Amino acid sequence: MGFLNAVRELGELSSASGWESYLKFPLGQIKENKKDEIPKVLRIWLEVYNPDALQLRVHGVKKMDLVDYMIDPEMKKKYLYRDRVGKNTFWGFTPLHLMGKPKKDENARKKQLVGESGDWENEKDCIFYKIKYRLLNDYEACEFFTPGAVDIIMNFLNEHVNDIADLYHGKGTFMLLFGIEDNGNFRYPGDVPAFVKYFREKLEQHIQKKGGDSSARVACSCCHKITNNPVALDKVFKFSTFDKVNVLPGLDKRNIYKVIPVCQECLEKLTAGREVIERELTDKSTIQGINIWMVPEVVGILRDSELLRRTIKRLNVNDEGARGMGKEGERKFFRRLAKEDSGLVFHFLFWETLQAQERVHLMVEDVPPSLLARLEKAWQKALTACGNQSKKDLDSAFKTIFAACISLSGKSTEDKAVMRDYVINIIGRMLRGERLTVDSFKTMFVRRIPKLLFDSDKWMNVRSAASRGQLVVEFMERINKEVAKDEAELGVS
Question: Whose CA is closest to 41, among 77, 88, 75?
Fold first, then answer.
């Protein structure tokens, strides 16, 4: 429960409450020092008779324009965004479509919009089809738009496809956002009562609904208060699911609420906490394809929210001094964790996105900064012993382990996945302060290096792999010496 409580405490840092706790930024944070890669928002200014009505009577589109994606705190509510409950759903929480990155060629961008044939209503993979059939139609079906509103909007988009293709151009990611024109100003979805009501209704139907027996009265697993409206953790974490027979309670949904139930208040805080982790405390650059969550928790009886805020702020600054990051950003998380306050411990979760699910590879709880500092020191000693001038931070150490192992993997996706899991196992043992199986690494390395030598057409690749392997062995040996000292002090044989 340490991890769960830590996520909840992060959620308590948020000033949002109620339905606003479920909001998140569409693309998370971005690196402020790369202006040409900042995502763009293609805004569609809808003309309606009454912007404050709960059913919008759309009679046209005033215009469209392009603005930078913004991460100011107030923009989270304005975007009114939350991820879909599933990739195959025919509705979204907010009138926003993530367009992705545009092609360089103009004709290719048009095909992204209207499909190869141009008949976008029958091209299910094109942007226009998704906007109508997987986003806007539900607003009309649920009577938040008057009949015919979607056709008016789509006719405008279709007539201006060339203009949209011109705007849909650049290096960054694009999103298309519908808002309301109001006396010359653009009202974002979060400022439009109809869109807010739609969001809240979908939230109640699909997120806040009870997980099991409607007559259940159980204690919340987080705050321990009795609740008659329990929900399951699958509303927050996709790795907590109840549609598989090997996950208790299996297919018997009547018993879902018996497995780590949480109350509505804690659901809000856990959801807000996850949003903080994804935006501020996630490493995506150490192991390819793996998200590493680094969740801080204050040690002791008294909670120190200010300590948590300071920690998040320090961790969320990259090497160039800019806050926030995109998918390519690096903030040297592990190096900074090693220098953190002794009043903290960290929980690490290694997971990957697998279609609509989230597959957990490893969780390590209660890791003190002092252990990370020892690992970094062992890495620096290994570099000196090998005469290597590589970067001395712990992030580089973990990336070197991954690079050394993945260079020995075969070309198949399966072999690379096996090697990646092996790396996660090694790093996990390091974070737990356990003795490492150096001999197994040596054996694996010796067995695989001949194949690399045979397959590679560049001697430098083989030489680099061998050098990294030697460095990793030296690193592991020095860690084992430290573990042996600890065992000797504790009298462990």
Answer: 75
Q: Are 383 and 396 in contact (CB under 8 A)?
A: no
Long-range contacts of 33-36 (CB under 8 A, 24+ apart): 33/320, 33/322, 34/326, 36/170, 36/171, 36/172
pLDDT at 249: 54
Instruction: Specify whether the CB–CB gap between 250 and 277 falls below 8 A.
Output: no
Amino acid (1-letter code) at residue 166? D
Residue 428 neighbours by CB under 8 Å, 6+ apart: 348, 350, 362, 364
Which runs of consecutive H residues, i.e. helices, occur in 219-296? 264-280
Q: Which residues pair with 475 in a beta bridge?
A: none
Q: DSSP assignment of 169-201, as one string? A: -SSS-EEEEEEEEETTEEEPGGG-HHHHHHHHH
* Alpha helices in 72-186, H assignment, sequence order: 75-79, 106-114, 127-131, 137-141, 149-159, 161-167
pTM assigned to the model: 0.80
Q: Which of 282, 279, 310 is nearest to 295 (CA)?
A: 282
Of 106, 96, 81, 124, the C-alpha closest to 168 is 106
How far is the C-alpha of 478 from the C-alpha of 226, rounded, in Å? 50
Q: How far is CA 48 from CA 45, 137, 180, 219, 274, in A?
A: 10, 17, 7, 47, 36
What is the arithmetic mean of pLDDT over 245-261? 60
Secondary structure element (H or E) that encloses residue 44, with its range: strand 40-48
Lookup: tokens for 254: 């009547």
pLDDT digits (tens, 9 = 90+) for 383-434: 999 988 878 899 999 999 999 998 888 778 888 899 999 999 999 999 999 9
Q: Where are the domains of the chain?
A: 1-18+208-279, 31-204, 281-490
> Which residue, among 218, 210, 219, has the nearest Cα to 254 in the 3D structure?
210
Q: How far is it, in rounded angstroms, from Cα 377 to Cα 392?
A: 9
Please state whether 14 falls in left (phi above 0), alpha (psi between -120 and 50) or beta.
Answer: beta
Please give the Cα distance from 480 to 437 (Å, whole number): 9
Mean pLDDT score of the chain? 85
Continuous H helices in 69-115:
75-79, 106-114
Euclidean distance between CA atoms 121 and 326, whole angstroms: 33
The closest alpha carbon to 226, from 253, 269, 261, belongs to 261
Q: 431-446: per-residue pLDDT in tens?
A: 999 999 999 999 988 8
Among 342, 343, 332, 338, smallest CA distance to 371 is for: 338
